[in-house]
Design brief:
heterodimer, A: mainly alpha, ABC transporter involved in vitamin B12 uptake, BtuC, two-stranded antiparallel ribbon, B: alpha/beta, 6-stranded mixed beta sheet, 4-stranded antiparallel beta sheet, 9 helices
Chain lengths: 339, 253
Amino acid sequence: MSPRLDRRAAVAIGLMALLAILPLVATWLDQGFYVGQLRRVLIFAIAAVSLDIILGYGGMVSLGHAAFVGAGAYVVALLHWHADRGIEVLGILPGTMQSLATIPAAMLVAALLALAIGAISLRTSGLYFIMITLAFAQLVYFLFVSLRFEDAGRSYGGDDGLRYPADVTVLGLVDTTNDLGFYFVVWTVLALVLLGAQRLVRSRFGVVLQGIRDNERRMRAIGFPTNRYRLVAFVLSGAIAGLAGALLALHESYVSPSLMHWTRSGDLVVMVVLGGMGTLFGPVIGATLFLLLEKFLPDFTEHWMIVFGPLLVLAVLFARRGLIGLFDKRGEEARDGGH
Amino acid sequence: MAATDALLEARGLVKRFGGLVATDQLDLSVRRGEIHAVIGPNGAGKTTLIGQLTGELRPDAGTILFDGADVTALPAPARARLGIARSFQITQIFRRFTVLENVMLAVQAREPHAFRFWKDARRDEALAAPARSVLEETGLAASAGRLAGALAHGEQRQLEIAMALATSPRMLLLDEPMAGMGREESERMTALLRRLKARETILLVEHDMDVVFALADRVTVLVYGRAIASGTPDEIRANPEVRTAYLGEDEAA
């Protein structure tokens, strides 16, 4: 392990510790509002890490990742909504609020969606791949906008979104009403996703993925069916994004199609690039900074976007390896991609 | 038909790019255990030929047989797994990986595609041990831990060959392995090819005539996508058509 990796691991552990302490301090200071804000940050961090697997390690610039987050969120939302009303989904499947069932279901649906979108999109590359993932995501977006299932005056709400009760026990651990407890469930999920992704990118599969990113031609010449590997990565990434979506649905108790609007996908890309592509923990930093700025800049000025935009540009200009790169020692040989 | 001593055979190969015929009714047969050199002036279609033989390019007509089996429709990865390995004229390596990691990846390529997501691949002795022995063989052992992108040009060319060898191929297609090399590097590469000659079947595309005539068992001369002659180095040297089309200019220069 290189010294730089040790540094980055130290940064990751330090910041995860900070993210564990902050809500405790906030609660102690009677500022419970911030616990919810930070929980939302962590949920988006999970989505950003999932995007980093394909973007940073696979070289696949997907502008449709929010579709998987949104799909995961809607699965949980719809299951709750139906369970609440006692109506079967599509007339066959009973709704449920058991998160041990709804969360895996959300991941499965997101994975299947990623399989369908990936199988077609991965026939292209470069700019075309960006455009086709964007197009598919917008397709999914408009599908949910037009989702106006009516049943005795109760509807899915289309672009108004959907409200549903979400007072449940998360994964058999704690109730969503327990602000701090739910926070630590999400924190733990993020930690596990980071550890799992870390193993993944160093595994045989992960090394192949990075090889494809760096030189697909050579990979094919030595015998790797590159698209199959890409597709597996895309589906895995989609499943984790679905997990983030499921947690978001439990957190918000409300979903709307705006979750999967293409600008949301763009936000995720910005989080990854801002924090550091191909670093796994970088996107956590990126998501944190992005969402906190987005949340609190408007308190200072209504023209906050004029500040926000240039800040992002400066960050990308001056931190070429992302914000996490700022923690690296000076003059170290550039060698990104998690190895 | 298949029971010949040809390991790789092309019959009536045609490849057009728009109006340009890059490969024109080409027949080629590489026998087991030989070094078969393909020479020809720039633009003769040598790299296009390699592209078709390895599956990167799809020919417009003709068939390609490997060990008697028709592989014309197989994509590049499938052909590689049958044992057709190649090196590139323009170096194609993983610059951000170490030299050892480059070769380990090639070793991994020959194994079944078990999607393994958990164990650290870089500490996998099952990959590292064979990779190290290939590095030993190709004279790169001392550079194993360096980043491939930081190697000198000549070493990167050696790494090209090492990666091809690490897939345990049944046949090597080498596209100008000496490209851009200095005298000394070139001699080292020639020595390496001479060692490989003892046990590998090789199709060698090369500009350096000294190397071709020193190593090749047979030579095919390509001009405008057509094979104008094929034979032993002596036959090729004596062929008047070849002399005017190719060797003549070369010697005059």
